[in-house]
């Protein structure tokens, strides 16, 4: 179910406050989001996955192993696993810059507002919500 406009605004305010409070943590969380990889990164992941699949099957055909264990197939599996991670976490960090810039722009538009802790602002909003009802 999509968020209402009010919920979207609240979420945006929380994100902006997070960027203002701890930009290093916020950018690291933004970079680790799933499903944010570009088309080029997905294509690279597919190519690496196919290479891993070739190694996996080729290792069984060539039958080179250590102690009866097909080591080339193991390498192929690890390459396939890495390609899957690349497809999921493939964001190269460029996407987080626009969100960070948006957060700073919202911060600058407030002017000379007094600096308060994130938790204090959230508590104040929570209390205002119940005062309005």
Walk me through this protein's architecture.
InterPro entries: DUF3040 (IPR021401). There is one protein chain. The protein is mainly alpha-helical. It has 2 domains: 1-36 and 93-126, no CATH class; 38-90. It has helices at 5-21, 23-31, 39-62, 71-89, 95-109, 118-132; strands at residues 65-66, 69-70. A hairpin with a 2-residue loop joins strand 1 (65-66) and strand 2 (69-70). Residues 93-111 have low confidence and may be disordered.
Task: Supply the key terms.
transmembrane helix; 133 residues; 2 domains; two-stranded antiparallel ribbon; mainly alpha
Distance, first to last CA: 25 Å
Strand content: under 5%
Oligomer: single chain
Q: What gross morphology would you assign?
A: elongated
Model regions low in confidence, pLDDT < 50 over at least 5 residues: 93-111
Structural class comes to: mainly alpha
Average of the residue pLDDT scores = 75
Q: State the helicity in percent bands.
A: over 70%
Taken together, the total number of domains comes to 2
How do the strands of the widest beta sheet line up side by side? 1-2
SSE map:
Blueprint: H1 5-21, H2 23-31, H3 39-62, E1 65-66, E2 69-70, H4 71-89, H5 95-109, H6 118-132
Antiparallel strand pairs: 1-2
Helix pairs in contact: 1-2, 1-5, 2-5, 3-4
Transmembrane segments: 43-65, 71-90
Region (Disordered): 93-133
Organism: Gordonia rhizosphera NBRC 16068
State the gist of this model.
74% of the residues lie in helices and 3% in strands.
